[in-house]
């Protein structure tokens, strides 16, 4: 049995009174972001199967630290 329009409006008013319009707006935005993220993840399954290693943002930091450490060791040996 499908609820009628007046019944849906009554339920909507009760939900707004309980949660508040701002909280429902935030909930809607969070739900929309989650759906968008899910769709993006589903669209890019080929990236997971590629043979190329993924670039990690922190990797450049680790590489820079390794280079500086190697330079420091080299300078220490020369001194």
Helices and strands, with pairings:
Blueprint: H1 5-19, H2 21-43, H3 46-49, H4 57-78
The CATH topology of the domain at 1-49 turns out to be Single alpha-helices involved in coiled-coils or other helix-helix interfaces
Please give the radius of gyration in angstroms.
Answer: 27 Å
CA-CA gap between termini: 87 Å
Separate helix tally:
4
Largest sheet: none
Instruction: Bin the helical content.
Output: over 70%
In CATH terms, what is the architecture of the domain at 1-49? Answer: Up-down Bundle
Oligomerization state of this entry? single chain
Give the percentage of residues in beta strands. under 5%
Task: Report the order of strands and helices.
Answer: HHHH
Mean pLDDT: 76
Going by helix content, strand content and strand pairing, the class is mainly alpha
Low-confidence stretches: none
Kindly state the number of beta strands.
0
CATH class of the domain at 1-49: Mainly Alpha
The outline comes out as elongated
Provide structural commentary.
- The chain has 79 residues and is mainly alpha-helical.
- It has a domain at 1-49: Single alpha-helices involved in coiled-coils or other helix-helix interfaces, CATH 1.20.5.
- The protein contains 4 helices and no strands.
- It has helices at residues 5-19, 21-43, 46-49, 57-78.
- The mean pLDDT is 76.
What distinguishing features does this structure have?
single chain, 79 residues, mainly alpha, Single alpha-helices involved in coiled-coils or other helix-helix interfaces, 4 helices, elongated
């Amino acid at each position: 049995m499908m609820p009628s329009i007046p019944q849906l409006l009554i339920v909507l008013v009760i939900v707004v009174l309980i949660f508040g319009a701002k909280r429902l707006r935030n909930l809607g935005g969070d739900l929309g972001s989650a759906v968008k993220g899910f769709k993006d993840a589903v669209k890019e399954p080929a990236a997971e199967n590629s043979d190329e290693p993924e670039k990690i943002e922190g990797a450049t930091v680790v590489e820079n630290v390794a280079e500086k450490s190697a330079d420091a060791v080299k300078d220490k040996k020369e001194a």
